[in-house]
Write a structure and sequence with these properties.
The complex is a heterodimer of chains A (about 375) and B (about 270).
Chain A: E1 15-26, E2 29-40, E3 44-48, H1 55-63, E4 70-75, E5 78-79, E6 90-93, H2 105-110, H3 122-133, H4 149-161, E7 167-171, H5 179-196, E8 199-204, H6 207-213, E9 216-221, E10 224-229, H7 231-236, H8 241-246, E11 251-260, E12 264-269, E13 273-278, E14 289-294, E15 300-302, E16 311-321, E17 325-331, E18 339-344, E19 357-361, E20 368-370
Parallel strand pairs in A: 3-8, 3-9, 6-7, 7-8
Antiparallel strand pairs in A: 1-2, 1-4, 4-5, 9-10, 11-12, 11-14, 12-13, 14-20, 15-19, 16-17, 16-19, 17-18
Helix pairs in contact in A: 3-4
Chain B: H1 2-34, H2 51-55, H3 60-93, H4 99-107, H5 114-128, H6 134-157, H7 162-170, H8 175-204, H9 207-212, H10 219-226, H11 233-269
Classes of the chains: A alpha+beta (about 375), B mainly alpha (about 270).
Chain lengths: ~375, ~270
Amino acid sequence: MPEQPQIERAQSDRAMIEIRNVTRSYGSFKALDDASLTIREGEFFSLLGPSGCGKTTLLRMIAGFDNPTSGSIAVGGQPMEGIPANRRPTNMVFQCYAIFPHLNVEQNVAYGLKRLKLQGGEEKRRVEEALAQVSLTGLGKRLATELSGGQRQRVALARALVMRPKVLLLDEPLSALDKKLREQMQVELRRLQQAVGITFVLVTHDQYEALAMSDRIAVMFGGKIAQVASPKEIYQRPVNRQVADFLGGMNFVKAEIVEENGTSLVVDTLGFGRVKTDKPKAFVRNGGAATLGIRPERLRVLWDNATAKFEVAGKVVERHYFGEITHLIVEIPGLEKPLSVTETNDFGADDIPVGTPIRLAYDPEALVAMGD
Amino acid sequence: MKARRFLSGGWLSVYAFLYIVFLYLPVIFLPIFSVNVAPTPKFPLTGFTLQWYADLPHTPALLDAAWNSLKVGVCASILATVLGILAARSITRYRYPGRRTINGLIMAPLVLPEVIVAISMLLVMLQLGLSLSLFTVVLGHVLICIPYSMTVLTSGFEGFDRSLEEASADLGESAFGTFRRVTLPMVAPAIISSLLVCFTISLDEFIIAFFLTGTEATLPIYIWGQLRFASKLPGVLALGTLLLVASFLLMTVAEILRRRAARRTQNEGGLYA
């Protein structure tokens, strides 16, 4: 079930895209299953999930390349049913860019403007402006075949932005770029979106990309929307194990429910004792058992005689070095699975010998209850 | 060891050389004898002349045949290419059951014995009550041209990225506008190439034209008719040489265009192209 959207940093409360109970079936297979979602005006929104989760299907239905089997999609308050792609107020940046190879950069960017028959150099002015927005000024006469991957990506972006759409749709736009360029483009895309103020909808399978760029994220699995929230909320308070796992490492701890009320849960765990935690909105009680999760970086090594209000004791069983950080695998008596701990190397976590007894500090706030 | 490699390398070169000679020697005789003074094609050559070429435009029957061939070639190549475009588009763009079988059936005339095809077509035409004319020749030529047209067009259409058409629609262009501004310019070289290939095939084709034409001769039929008269042989050689050169040029241009079309569509397919 989709969670109610939470306001993190409101651009505007006006809905730009409204997706109501949209299902897309191929025979008996449901690529998208009863998805409902509201994307706000001026928002950078990401659809995040593994391949085959239905995120691209949803994007293509917003663009008009595919139609819902049932349900409705509205953009800017206007129902999109029966409106073909060429008459929708959306533009798309394709995964493989789809740059017209028989046209040069300028002609590619001006492609959609040609039909508008703009007067008195307006077309030229808008093309120049769009090229400047994506830092391609001066490359207008280049052929598409003479461009690098990153440059083609910028052309695709300029070609869509020049149309001044209400919504810009981005289908895994960075997946073909190498790591360094990808990180650079993440920053640029976010900056560009803030500058133009257009609603961006990004499809990605890269959780860091979604976390770094988005105002809000919808995490999808198997055609269903699992959670819609801000990056921080999604990362810190995932609704279930699947979401938690997809967003990065997470230690799961079995717990027994002792007390439950409207907003909180009190649970008993073997390693962490009795914990009081916020009850997630979508929490559905399944007998007396629950699962708690804690991110590896929320466990800190306690050096020497340092103490903390909340701590667990155990023994290092594995150590993995990753340059700026070290992963420690720590066995805690009573826990069925050892804890994974991420520690910066400032204090010598990379030198802790395997077998060393160790104490870990944690904040009970970081222990989150979730559905399975 | 070295000697053996040299030897095998040497033999391979000799073999390759003989191979090429076998393929092209007969063809070389044509232009050589066409500029020979003596009317009989025999060595030694007796002298150089362009007389036989100069005589060609003064032969009304030849001009008629050339005109007929031109008409048949243009009609057949256009028809075969239009049909080929539809088929190639369907084969390369969509996935449906029986796609391979249909492709195979379309390509089959390539390997069917031409004389059988010609006789079958003749029977069909007569059954349909069509009187034999250049029109029936055009129909026959369309049949044998389609496999060639398909080969050229599929190679031009293959890898044509569907998202280019989607991008065009996304930017506001209608279906027809997309075809005119994206699809057509991308595949134009392949289409022209197909027209040239089909025209060349129709121009040179003898058996089907022989069976299906009425009283009007095409160039190959005219040439065949002339062979009965020894005195006409030099003219035939000159005409043959011209046909040879024309075919060669048309095919070269067609191949260049086909490659250009393939390059255009394919380098968009890859991500880093």
